[in-house]
Amino acid sequence: VAAERERALATLRGDADRARADADSAVAARDALVRSIDERRDLNARLSGELQESQQKLHAMLSGTSEPFRGAEPGFLPLAPFRGALEWPVDGPVRARFGRARPGRGSPARGIDIEAPEHAPVRAIHDGTVVFSDTFVGLGKLVILNHGGQTFTLYGNLSELAVSSGAHLPQGGTVGMVGLSPTGGAGLYFELRVDGRPVDPLQWLKRR
Known about the structure:
Layout: H1 2-62, E1 94-96, E2 112-115, E3 121-123, E4 128-136, E5 140-146, E6 152-161, E7 168-169, E8 174-180, E9 186-194, E10 197-199
Antiparallel strand pairs: 1-2, 2-9, 3-8, 4-5, 4-7, 5-6, 6-8, 6-9, 8-9, 9-10
């Protein structure tokens, strides 16, 4: 009888130990999940803040208040007459549209995200002068073309830059290569600004 009681107690102790271990594991997993959520929230908040700062800086640059953009008016045909007839910078479907909030960023998109193969060439949609070709917070490797009359096109998230500031690029010229977007997958961030303000590129590119 005593032996049976000891075996029963041993079994109960084993069950209790396993239950305690399972509970500890569940608590650890929950704590890890909470930390992960907090870290993602902090990261999203930081990215959102950085993006807002970068957009303010970008707006200042494209408004002509920043030194590199002064005196950069190219002598090309104006962009306005080509509305609805401009060639696409890359071939591929639009996976993020103008004006819609981006995941984890809150603010509406000022451009579009076009899905395209990584390292595919990115083409200038119109003649222009390169006024920026470098890394820019929130947009990765970025090329900005000035088409005159406060009209600009922006090509972001590039894997490679194919042009330097000051270069004159014809329509169809390569500005760089498609890279990876922050949300994952290869694609091009493309933005069009007319009179210094973002507009929906789909209203200017050829319908397809």
